[in-house]
C-alpha cells in the first residue's frame, strides 16, 4: 500500500501510548499478549503448512481452514509485534504511512475473516443438510474463489475509508491514545470533518457483520435442526460439540469486534485503559483460538500436522545419526 500524500500540517509520525494510565504495568501486561501471539503464530503456521503440503487435505473444508489460518497470521502480525515493542521497549513512534498501512491490513483481515467464516458455515450447511450434493456444489476451485471474493470484499471496503482518512489534516496532536493505529483513535487526531469517514466506517461494518451473521445464523440453525433429527445419540453429541465450539469462536469474533468498535465510538463512561485492553484482546485471542478449534481438533489435520512434524524431525534425526 503506497504512503498517503502528506500536507505540511501532517506529522511525519505518530506516537502510540500503549495502555493509557497503566504505563507502569506495561511489561506485565505484555506477557499474556506475547504468549497468545506465539501460540497463534505456531498453531496457524502448523495448520497452514499441513493443509498446503498434504494432498489428502486438499478439500474445500480444509481450504477454508487454511485461509482462516493465513488471515489470522496477517491479522495478528500486523499489530501484535509493534504492540509488544511499545509495551516492552517503549518504541512508541510509528510512521504516518506505516500507521495507515497497519490500519488497512488489520481491518481488511477482519472483513476477510468474516467472509471466510460465512463460507465455512455454508460449507458445513451443505455437507450436513445436503450431503449428496456436496461434491458437486462445493469444489476446491469454488472454495478458493470464495476466499478470494472475501479478500476482495475487504479490500474494496477499506480503500474508500483509507482515502477519506488520509485526505484529512492531522494537526491537533500526534499522540494516539492506543497501543496500535486503531481507526477511531487515529481519526480523533484529525483537524478536519471526520463525520463522512465515521458514517462510512460504521455503516459498512454494520452492513457486513449484519449480513454475514444473518447467513451464519441460518446455516447453523439448519445444521442444528438436521443434527437433532439423527437417530443415534453418539453422532448427535459429536456434531453438537463440533458446532458448539465453532459457534463459540464465531461469537467471540463478532461480539469482540463490535464491542471494540462501538466502545471506541461511544465510551459509555468506561476508562480509556479498559477500552484499549478490550480492543487489544480482540486482536490477540481469536487468532490463538481458531487453530485450536478449527484446525488441531479436526482429526485429518491432526494427522497432517503429525506428518509435517515427522518430516521436519526426519532430516534432523538422520543428520544426528
From TrEMBL:
Transmembrane region(s): 27-53, 60-80, 100-122, 143-168, 202-227, 239-263
Any one GO CC term of the record: plasma membrane
Topology class, membrane: Multi-pass membrane protein
InterPro entries named in the record: GPCR_Rhodpsn, GPCR_Rhodpsn_7TM, Olfact_rcpt, OR51/52/56-like
Domain G-protein coupled receptors family 1 profile: 43-294
Main location: membrane
Organism domain of life: Eukaryota
Protein localization: Cell membrane; Membrane
GO molecular function: G protein-coupled receptor activity; olfactory receptor activity
Pfam entry (one): 7tm_4
UniProt keyword terms in alphabetical order: Cell membrane, G-protein coupled receptor, Membrane, Olfaction, Receptor, Sensory transduction, Transducer, Transmembrane, Transmembrane helix
Role of this protein: Odorant receptor.
Family the entry assigns: Belongs to the G-protein coupled receptor 1 family.
Protein known as: Olfactory receptor
Organism of provenance: Chaetops frenatus
Highest classification ranks of the organism: Eukaryota, Metazoa, Chordata, Craniata, Vertebrata
